[in-house]
Amino acid sequence: MKFPFLVSAALWSCMIFQCLSAEPVRMSYLDNGQVKVGVDLNLGGAITWLSRGKGENMVNSYDYGRQIQMSYYSGPVPYETAGQKPADHWKHLGWNPVQAGDDFHHGSKVSEHTNDGRIIHVKCTPLQWPLNQVPAECTFETWLELDGVVVKARARLTNARSDKTQFPARLQELPALYANAPYHRVISYTGDRPFTGADPESIPKSPGPHPWSFWMATEQWSALLDAHDQGIGLITPGRISFTGGFAGKPGPNDPHATSTGYLASQAQEILDHNIVFESRFEILPGSLKEIRERAFRQCSQHDLPAWIFSRDRQGWHSQNTIDHGWPIDDLIHFELKESDPQLISPPVFWQADAAPYLTIQAAIKSPHRNATVYWTHLGQPVPGPQDFMEFPIIGDGEYHRYVVKLSDAKSYAGAMIQLRLDPVPEGSEGAWMNLKYLVLSNTPPP
Q1: Exposed end of the chain (fewer CB within 10 Å): N or C?
Q2: Domain ranges of the chain
């Protein structure tokens, strides 16, 4: 997320010292003797302390874009308000409220805080990261509790933006996690045999100038570890898309050093002006063995993907079309006016031979008579040239159930991570779709 390539380390260290010394630290902790977690009430309740028992703090707080915290993205890009424009190196971020504070070392203000010894709850008004002391038109809330050696977290974004534009989906950090310099090895499992005990692997460093890599963690966890397989694991039931890496040089455990490891679970989400968006994750300070065993217990379910749009978008997003917006109530309505409208699922792992059938419940109003479903194989960024199947639709605006036998396509084989639905080949004036669900199954529906 935030890595200050353009500012000298000496200048940043000076600025941080001045900021941190300007106001007494206000911390709130949970400690069960196995794990200690602490949030800074001067920094929006972001996690600034994580340790195993009475061990050292593992969280990096070099600036207010580090910590373990909430960070969200939307349009416009660049984002300008209150007469301010972002610096050139932050223009690409767009609308970016951050739990801890902004790039000018102002902390986000906490409006509510409770700690009953079992659960910490914090609510704050976050600041726009690239701008100087600009509160975002939203609130963040986090709930933390301990479960043995695990920190269980729930996070909520509540938007109240005056700009009611539905901006395109952006990758969100759920959460952003920064660790100290000893934890320089990025470890995960990205293979096609999750939860079978196959060996995890080191995630290679990005070949470009940017320090972060991207991968599909098919066991729904990733970790930042030291040379002895000790560190921090991030477990995200239901999500497999990750980014992260290590910037700088491995070194001592200094929470204010510039060198840092980074992890974030990612999701491509539309953040409506009035959305209430929640996510859950777990943080485990410990060994690789403990992290992976916890992921096996929490994530190793064998249910096939099923997306039922009763209350939210289920992680789906669209291109070349917009939907009716938040709230979602039993369906998503899409306008199909633009060229090549596409609906794209969140990344999720399944084996093609376990799910030969796709069932879609939808009402479509269109002069076209065919839709297309695409699939993406594990290890591929997009569908290949043969990875699709057309199926007939009825464009009368009434609800119909479409059963697509994906296994009839030769290329539908092996490990899969994503679906894409093109409801019509071309948009047209007055065309629309109401989508209720998409379900993968082993047998045709009754």
Answers
A1: C
A2: 9-299, 306-441
pLDDT digits (tens, 9 = 90+) for 385-437: 999 999 999 999 999 999 999 999 999 999 999 999 999 999 999 999 999 99
Query: How far is CA 231 from each of CA 148, 185, 273, 279, 291, rounded to the nearest angstrom?
Result: 16, 9, 37, 23, 9
Instruction: Tell me the CATH number of domain 306-441, given options 3.40.50.720, 1.10.1790.10, 3.40.50.2000, 2.60.120.260.
Output: 2.60.120.260
Task: Report pLDDT for 42.
Answer: 98
Residues of the chain falling short of pLDDT 70: 1-23
How do residues 111-170 score in pLDDT, each as one tens digit? 999 999 999 999 999 999 999 999 999 999 999 999 999 999 999 999 999 999 999 999
Quick check: do 9-299 and 306-441 share a fold? no
What is the reported pLDDT for 9?
Answer: 34
Top-tier CATH class for 9-299: mainly beta
